[in-house]
Amino acid sequence: MATITPTPIGSDFSKALFNFLKTPGVEGFEPFVYDDSQGIPTLGVGYALVVNVGGVWKIRNDPTDITNYLTQFANNGIKLTDAQLKTLKDQLQLAADDLNAAGPVATTDSFPGWYPGLPDSANFLGWTITDEQALSLFKAVLPKYLSTVKTWLGNDTLYTSLQGSQEMMVLTSLAYNGYFGAGKSPALHKAIVDDGNRAEAWYEIRYNTPATNIIRNYAQAALFGLYDPGVVTEPEAIQVYQMFGSSGKSYGEMR
Fold this sequence. Notes:
- The chain is mostly helical.
- Helix content is 48%, strand content 8%.
- It has two domains: 30-129, no CATH class; 133-254, no CATH class.
- The protein has helices spanning 13-21, 69-75, 82-102, 131-153, 156-161, 166-176, 186-194, 198-207, 214-224, 234-245, 251-254, and strands at 30-35, 41-44, 47-48, 50-53, 56-59.
């Protein structure tokens, strides 16, 4: 069976992924609390401060959740006054209540009138975090998304082979963006796991991931790559030819 040959990154995986995600247009980076495109209060590189646990939105401070944000703040020297902590907690609770009432909203406006005192794109608490602090927060939640990738692949051998690779960076980025889960992305799963067809996987990543962030889709596809590393083989060239020429993949879609 054909397999996708991994492309080693040759550096610290978590930091390389962090730097990829913080690229403007991908996940992006803010050194203070903001809301993402779904109206979820977030910090740094996609570190959500309100999370969905079992279908319920709650502040990320439940010991049963993947990370207690107050503990992570303390571990990384992120210091807030008692007044700032109270303000933050109050605002996050308002956000959780609204998300539970209405669900995430597709908007690019920061805190669109839900949370009093949180002006659009403003550092309402008057503090910022450093890149290193943001990286530590990212590392705290990364294992969850790697586990999501492993479960989604359903193939431990393949998962192990992709460790420390560009391909795993892309898969983790997709998991970080909520693209993986039970029954999700069946065409991409087939291309990677069943067929080992990089060209089809590239197409799925570039064109069949959610269209809410085309820049991110293109960046992920470019990082994943259209060919295995090294010399292009004849079977690979045939896969690419077949992918571009197959039904539903017209030239217009490729521009």
